[in-house]
Structures are given as C-alpha cells and as structure tokens.
Amino acid sequence: PEEIRLRKDKIGFATPEYGWLNENSDAFKGYITSDMNEFFNVNKMQKDWDELLTKQSRTDITTLWRFINLAVWRKVYNL
Q: pTM for the full model?
C-alpha cells in the first residue's frame, strides 16, 4: 500500500550480530590480527575480548561487529 511504501520511518531487517558474536566468539576473534594495528589496538582488543562481548548492545549494530567486518573486508580484498 502507498501509505506504507511512502513511510519515512521504515528500517531494514536487523542482523543478529549479537548472537553471531557470542556463538562464534573464538572464530571472530581470529580475524583480529596484528595487521589491523593501524586501525585499533589489537593487543588490547584481544586481551579484553570477553569484556567487549558482554558490553555489546543486543539490538544495535555493534562497534565490535564493525571492526570484524573491516578485518574480513581487508583479508578478502588483500588490502
């Protein structure tokens, strides 16, 4: 319907990154390697990994999820 199509407050589908992060914590932690040091403190992130996970929001796109996406993107495109 037009009233829904034209609505300005629509949002896209949210991804379940909170669950993904917690269920696959070790696998995602493996993406945070020393080649990411120019973007963030890798040693601190690895040391504080569990604490970072517990502080993540359950509903918003998380900062940690964005770091992981950056790391994956760099590996995929060899940057």
A: 0.69
What CA–CA distance (Å, rounded) separates 76 from 26? 19
57 touches 18 (CB < 8 A):
yes
String of b and e for 7-28 (b: at least 16 CB within 10 Å)? eeeeeeeeeebbeebeeeeeeb
How far is the C-alpha of 28 from the C-alpha of 50, rounded, in Å? 12
Q: pLDDT-derived band of residue 61, with 50, 70 and 90 as boundaries?
A: low
> Is the Cβ–Cβ distance between 68 and 32 less than 8 Å?
yes
Asked if 37 and 45 count as a contact pair (C-beta separation under 8 A), the reply is: no
